[in-house]
Specification:
The protein is of the alpha/beta class. The chain is about 55% helix and about 10% strand. It has a five-stranded mixed sheet with strand order 2-1-3-4-5. It is a multi-pass membrane protein.
Length: about 425
């Protein structure tokens, strides 16, 4: 028996060249892709280009532990005078100095509430007095405490602000000491008195060595969001292809299954159920890869696992709700909601206090901001509720409820209006 010959290639169809000359085919892709490229460029680059110029109330602790007696003719010791001068001389609203004692500052560093601290140590006034009298064995010292758990850039900004404030305070103090010393001081002592204060930097709240300098929380959060986003879209497309509402193509192979009559509401319920089930797999594999294989520092593993599942689930449910409401363009809408708008407003790489106001407003409700705070609390701040974990749980619950309410409200509305996705095809 002769073998069946393959079906002939289509003939008489339009050529690619003739189709390229059809202007209408270009309009929609050109407008949409151009708009997306423009918006992505503005969103991503607009939030990072000028963090110093965008500083707004960056929280930094200021600790005055000086217990020395005031210099002759002064009512306050130098620690009190220095602290008051630093607060009053801060430009505009760039920095929000929090005047705390050492224990309070350490607690706020451990809760991620401040990006760093500037400490006036005990005996500071006595050390300056000894320097002025020429009996000092070493220069008076101010200490800058960093908080790497708040991200490398956030900690660096606080470090920069604190060191600049310390340098300005040292120069002003040096001017006063030089005037007081008069001609009695020798050239070497006068040179030392012009800039009398040394600045040392220490880690105020250490994190693990395998924490990416405070960036592991951001990248782990990004993995959770991407896992929920991609899995949601894969499930959406896979279910539509399996039920016969979309074509299935793999390389040159194309198939179209018979359409299964099903309402939009039931389809959405199926997709959300599959999202909840597969989120277990995706979050488990993320943890195996990042913690088991790569060795990321990750305390509180059971809590991290539960949080990771709920975070990825919230994103996946949101994707399904948006796809149900917007149809084919829903994947693009979801991309803007969960990635394009979320990344620059997450506060995980560039602090929200160092981005333009637009991003700070987005950070109030954009999901990645909430999830990053929760992950950061678990990884770096001993899973403290006041370090962002409590807010993250609340926002996850709100996000899941909003996705369910919005998705099913839209699906049921379309069903009641008789807006069926496609007329079923017989087998």
């Amino acid at each position: 028996m002769a073998s069946a010959s393959p079906p002939p290639a289509p003939v008489g169809g339009a050529s690619a060249g003739s189709l390229l000359r059809r202007g209408k085919l270009w309009v929609f892709p050109a407008v949409l892709s151009g708009l997306v490229a423009l918006l992505l460029s503005l969103l991503y680059m607009g939030g990072i280009l000028n963090p110093d110029g965008s500083l707004h109330r960056l929280p930094v602790a200021l600790v005055d532990a000086d217990d020395g007696r005031p210099l002759p003719g002064e009512r306050q010791n130098l620690g009190a005078r220095l602290s008051a001068a630093i607060v009053s001389s801060s430009p505009g609203d760039d920095v929000r100095w929090r005047r705390l004692n050492r224990a309070e500052a350490q607690d706020q560093l451990a809760a991620g509430k401040v990006y760093g601290a500037l400490v006036v140590p005990p005996g500071f006034t006595d050390a300056v007095r000894a320097l002025a009298e020429g009996t000092a064995e070493q220069r008076p010292t101010l200490t800058v405490l960093t908080n790497p758990g708040m991200g490398s850039l956030g900690s660096a900004l606080a470090d920069q602000v604190s060191e600049r404030a310390a340098a300005e305070a040292s120069q002003e103090l040096g001017r006063q000491l030089t005037e007081s010393a008069g001609s009695e001081a020798g050239p070497a002592q006068r040179l030392l008195l012009r800039d009398p204060v040394a600045v040392t930097t220490e880690v105020g709240h250490p994190i693990g060595s395998r924490s990416g300098l405070g960036l592991s929380a951001f990248y782990y959060t990004l993995l959770l969001v991407l896992a929920g986003f991609l899995a949601g879209n894969i499930i959406h497309n896979g279910v539509d292809a399996g039920l016969g509402y979309a074509d299935s193509e793999l390389g040159p192979w194309h198939s179209r299954r018979p359409t299964v009559p099903v309402s939009r509401t039931s389809t959405l319920l199926l997709k959300m159920g599959m999202t909840a089930g597969l989120a277990v797999l995706t979050t488990a594999l993320i943890m195996v890869a990042t913690i088991g294989i790569l060795g990321m520092d990750a305390p509180h593993l059971p809590l991290l696992a539960l949080f990771s599942y709920c975070a990825s689930l919230a994103v996946g449910l949101g994707v399904q709700a948006i796809n149900a409401a917007f149809g084919g363009i829903g994947q693009l809408v979801a991309m803007f909601v969960f990635i394009a708008l979320a990344l620059p407003s997450s506060g995980a790489t560039v602090p929200l206090e160092a981005v333009p106001e637009f991003y700070r407003v987005l950070g109030v409700f954009e999901p990645m901001r909430q999830l990053a705070s929760g992950v950061r609390s678990i990884l770096y701040f001993d899973a403290r509720a006041d370090a962002g974990l409590a807010r993250a749980w609340v926002m996850i619950a709100i996000g899941c409820a909003a996705a369910l309410a919005f998705g099913f409200a839209m699906a049921r509305y379309y069903d009641r209006k008789g807006l069926h996705r496609m007329v079923p095809r017989p087998e």
